[in-house]
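Box S1 | Example of a co-folding query
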Amino acid sequence: MSSELSPIDKAKFVCAKRAAQFVENGMRVGLGTGSTAAWLVRCLGERVRDEGLHITGVPTSTRTAELAREVGIDVITLDAAKRLDLTIDGADEFDGAFNLIKGGGGALLHEKVVATSSDRMIVIADVGKEVETLGAFPLPIEVIPFGLQTTHALVDETLVSMDVLGRDSSLRMDGDKPFVTDEGNHIIDLHLKRIGDARQLAMTLNQLPGVVENGLLIDICDTVVLGFGDGKVEVRDINDGTVASERMVFAESDNLFSDLSD
Ligand code: 5RP
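Box S1 (continued) | Returned holo structure for ribulose-5-phosphate
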């Protein structure tokens, strides 16, 4: 399989595979959304099948829920699980303080709720997701359909006084219609280029009527498992300040990903 994968897909696969090793029998696990998280779900499915690992998963989107069921993971709601032991999810960007931009896949609201309900959050990311300062990736915010244009105008007005480099914004589309989230809301992407004060921006955006949530996750992520195209992974932990490096082996059995279409 390894020869068929692009370096970026290899990077996503190895960090997901390494992160799956953090999951222990009996854990309640938040399952992220996106292409890297989909590798994770497949890796966990493999452990369920091959090792008899028993876990319950709380998916952050309908597509992750479908995949989790498909690979044999028991799926429950967040309210049934209550507190989660661990959430593993991808990210669009992370900085040196492990602050994140999420929501490229449109699941930021559920992702944020699930991550904050967890004792530990592990982010799985290919090396291209690491940034010095957040903001090159457009910051998604989830807004309710009622008064969409009014809320959009209010967001634009608010950005004028924020410490950011760019102030363009766009309604995310799905073909010729606004993209609709699992909660029936829409997404506005903020093209900020550089976010000077992520904490202040996150708080300000969430105070605007019509804005449900923003894709900035501040002080939530504990560990980043970073994947490289040559199979190397780095496990970085913000709480104990450690960085451990190792190399993952691509095995023939890893072709369980060959039909992945996320
Ligand atoms: C979905 C997300 C994803 O975690 C993020 O977009 C990264 O996706 P990928 O792993 O496909 O690069 O936040 O809402």
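The CA atoms of residues 1 and 251 lie 8 Å apart. DSSP finds seven helices and 17 strands in the chain.
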